[in-house]
Amino acid sequence: MNEERFARLERQVRTLQVSLVVVCCTFVVLVVAAFRPNEETPHVLRVRGIIVEDSLGRERILIGAPIPSASRRIRTDTARVARIWGPRFPKAYLEYYKSYRHDMDGMLVLDTNGFDRLAVGQNVPDPNIGQRIGRSTGVIINDSLGFERSGYGLLTIKGQDRVVLGLDISGGEAATLVADEQGHIGFMAHDSTRSLYLGRTTLQTEGKSTPFFGLLMQEGSRIRFKAPADSGR
Length: 233
Description:
This protein is α+β, with helices and mostly antiparallel strands. The chain is globular, with a radius of gyration of 21 Å. The chain is 20% helix and 42% strand.
């Protein structure tokens, strides 16, 4: 079962890598096709931002540092945020939403309805359900209602970096692959009440930190099963 999960995770990583290459190539082609070189510096293109529209004049791709604003983007239209996402959450959500980050340096792809679908770059936007614990550089993929469903990036927290690949289901986290600044390296799978961790981490036992490498299964904060990798020796 674990081998199947890892295989599925590897396929997701490969898909993200291919998507990133395609996005970068598309970015280069769009820039070269849309702009002529500066006469003073013929080999350098200097622009503040690019907005690519579809055949109906809808803003679909935003490129810049930071990205330019777009009138059709749901994320930055508080009236539509209140109408579309507000009813899903407690009233306090709209107040918290005011502090969420929506800009980024890089490229953002919008769908025909104005929802964020793909973000590639530095300091990518916060999820629409809460702030990130740090600035993230990488790739974010959202579903058709603008909710984050997958992401791969370098997350910087208090000056230290961790690499995270996340896969979500509707309503919460599903699986995470992480290598953090404290030396924890592992794969996590979640459901509503249980979680599984495979890799290297630190356990708190009687107020002491104990290194652990192996398999952990938890229900809430309680460890139900523990199998160290060297238990068979």
